[in-house]
Amino acid sequence: MYQAVVYISTSQYENVKKLESTKSVQAFAKDFHVLFLAVYTKLRIVSAPKVWNTLPLHIRQSQSLSTFRRHLKTHYFQLAYPAT
Q: Suppose 68 and one of 32, 41, 55, 62 were both cysteines; which one would form an S-S bond, judging by CB atoms 3.0 to 4.6 Å apart?
């Protein structure tokens, strides 16, 4: 059915060059991932209290997790789709 694509290298230098660029891309990706996680964590730490403080009091004072979730979903649904 399908045949695998065969890549033919004309010199050993190309293979070494590809390997080096692959390593640099992998190193960049790893550094980027670490940086992204650090920034994301800091943003979440700052934004979570702000979101919590904007919730109505009856939601924040829910007696159980299931009640909190139900009220939270209803609250955000009503914000997204206000009654006309």
A: 62
